[in-house]
Amino acid sequence: ALGEDPVAFTPLEFSILKTFLTMRDRVVKRNDIAAAAYDINDHVSGRTIDSHVRNIRVKLADAGCPSAIETVHGVGFRLGGCTRA
Questions:
Q1: 69-72 and 28-29: which strand pairing?
Q2: What whole-number distance in Å separates Cα of residue 13 and Cα of residue 52?
Q3: What residues have CB less than 8 Å from 42, skipping those under 6 apart?
Q4: What is the pLDDT of residues 11-32, one digit of tens each?
Q5: pTM assigned to the model
Q6: For 64, left (φ over 0), alpha (ψ -120 to 50), or beta?
Q7: Is the dihedral of CA 12, 15, 55, 42 positive or negative?
Q8: Which of 42, 69, 64 is nearest to 54 (CA)?
Q9: Contact at 8 Å (CB) between 38 and 44?
Q10: Is 21 helix (H, G, I), strand (E, B) or coil?
Q11: Are 69 and 60 contacting, i.e. CB atoms less than 8 angstroms apart?
């Protein structure tokens, strides 16, 4: 839930969010997200990770937190802040 609003995530999206939370103050590279969220033997492209992050962003924005995940161009992503309107 974001505040009082429930947000439904797929298990994979939840795993990616968990990765961001455990690395709260760091930039998380796409490879690190893939390694944490997928079976170690799976090959996952950066575009697939981008797609999952985009879906998470949309769900969080719909719940009132549009800046929860920031892009660090050329590196990866980091957990941002959330100011609700």
A1: unpaired
A2: 7
A3: 34
A4: 999 999 999 999 888 999 998 9
A5: 0.85
A6: left
A7: negative
A8: 69
A9: yes
A10: helix
A11: yes
